[in-house]
Each structure stands twice: as C-alpha cells, then as structure tokens.
Amino acid sequence: MILKLLYKIDLTQTIVAIGLVAALIISLFTGGTEQLSMCIASGLIGYIGGNVAGSAAHKKDTRK
After folding, report:
1. Within 10 Å of residue 24's Cβ, how many Cβ atoms?
2. What percentage of the chain has pLDDT greater than the value 90?
3. How many domains in the chain?
4. Is residue 4 part of a domain?
5. Are 49 and 17 in contact (CB under 8 A)?
C-alpha cells in the first residue's frame, strides 16, 4: 500500500516543496529578516496552491 502512494507522488514537486520548507525553517532559526521569511513563505504557498489547482484541472481534463 505504501508503494502505491509513493508512485503517485511527483518527485520534482516534492523536492521543491521540501527545499522551500527547509529554507523557511533555516531563515527563521538563523535570524533572517522578516521580509525574507515572508517571501519564502509566500512562495511556498503560491507553489503549493498552483500545483493543487493545476492538478485538479488536469484530473478534470482526463476524466472527459
């Protein structure tokens, strides 16, 4: 069952999301500026939101 879930995960999107989360955590704990943290966080939200919207549209197109 776990292997079926792993095949559904897009590796590129996962690596980008993990990298942005890591950058945000590093920025918060190393005393980065608030502006830097907000930019990373908004980029992360935008990236994930774009992937969810794109994935939903792709699924809708393939059902036709």
Report:
1. 19
2. 16
3. 1
4. no
5. no
Whether residue 19 lies inside any domain: the answer is: yes
The answer to whether residue 61 sits within a structural domain is no
Q: Pseudo-torsion of CA 34, 21, 30, 43, nearest 10°?
A: -30
Boundaries of domain holding 33: 13-56
pLDDT per position as a tens digit, 30-42: 988 889 989 989 9
Q: DSSP letter for 10, please.
A: -
Report whether 41 contacts 24 (CB < 8 A).
yes
Beta-carbon contacts of 41 under 8 Å, excluding residues fewer than 6 positions away, are 24
Residue 46 to residues 1, 31, 36, Cα–Cα distance (Å)? 30, 23, 15
